[in-house]
Amino acid sequence: MSNRHLLRTVALQTLYEWDFYGKDDKQLSKFLKQNMEEFAPGAEEPNFAKDLCLGVIKNINDIDKIITDAAPDWPLDQITMVDRNVLRMGVFELLFDKNIPPKVAINEAIELAKMFGGKSSGKFVNGVLGSIFRKMEEEIAKNKK
After folding, report:
1. Distance CA 130, CA 18 (A)
2. pTM value surpassing 0.85
3. CB of 57 closer than 8 Å to CB of 31
4. pLDDT digits (tens, 9 = 90+) for 23-81
5. 122 CB-near residues (< 8 Å, 6+ apart)
6. What is the DSSP secondary structure assignment for residue 100, as one 8-state letter?
7. Three-state SS across 52-84?
């Protein structure tokens, strides 16, 4: 498992706990510290997981609106907690983190969904992020005209 993939896994675990325990931002650093110690001790680039978690939380309102717009048949609270947080991470990397290539953001999210989600999680995440990516490309093309 690559270092960044492992750190995305830690970030997913951390965001899952944060979501499960009522989205208490004060708890985030505790969850992250515990998960880093348990799952990725001595990992290179440990700030990658921290930056990912903080980026998601900082932009949570925009991210959740983007997910809701891209998956109108799925109210956010009806999306499983794993899928919801995988999507949040994927949207953050896709739209807010310019250091991550879009295809990497999508592929990593799909892999996490397959690993930790349900039977159809990979397809669901692929569909939602693919829709967001196509809309992003359309906006870029429109702005070039």
Report:
1. 26
2. yes
3. no
4. 999 999 999 999 999 999 999 998 999 999 999 999 999 999 999 999 999 999 999 99
5. 110, 111, 113, 114
6. S
7. HHHHHHHCHHHHHHHHHHHCCCCCHHHCCHHHH
